[in-house]
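Thread: protein-serine/threonine phosphatase, structure

OP (GT): Posting the sequence first so everyone is looking at the same thing. Length is 175 residues per the record. Can we get the structure tokens written out before standup tomorrow? I want them in the notebook alongside the other entries.
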Amino acid sequence: MWHSFRGYGFYGELRLRYLGDNESDFILDAVGRVYGQLPLAALLCRKILCLHGGLSPKLQSIDDIRKIKRGLTEPSGLVEDLLWSDPSPSCMGFKANAERGCSFVFGADVVADRCQKLGILMIVRGHQAVDEGFEISSDRKVITLFSAPGYQDHYVNKGAVMIVSLSHPQPFYKC
């Protein structure tokens, strides 16, 4: 997974700030170890599954996520899918994610099936810059939420946050 730090500019920024390769490599390794300990998902109010990427054919229960061992350095299988899969409005089922070169794209049929199996109402994910900072699927079961405005200095997207409250029946989105 830490190879993605190099491809998305983090390693380059480390090298600019810490001129020696040894320091940059040391920091990159330390950050990678920290990332390996972070949770891969959050379950809000037992009804909203929050992920970086999306769904997996290997995800059949919330316990499948709970059983994942921490400290991974190279994701595969379920972990890779939770990080890298993407919803696709034109897809049925799961299909190879050609755009990313790993994991899957998944359709609304998969979302409906997994929401029912997992006992959840919706999935909130990041992972893709969207113009308004958030995007809601037509069935309102997938929300893509992107908090970084002007992503990588060449997108003109807004950033957004989402507020979930037990006293409010619907999430509130803010750009």
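GT: Both are above now. Quick notes for whoever picks this up: The mean pLDDT is 88. Helices lie at 3-7, 10-17, 21-35, 62-66, 77-84, 108-118.
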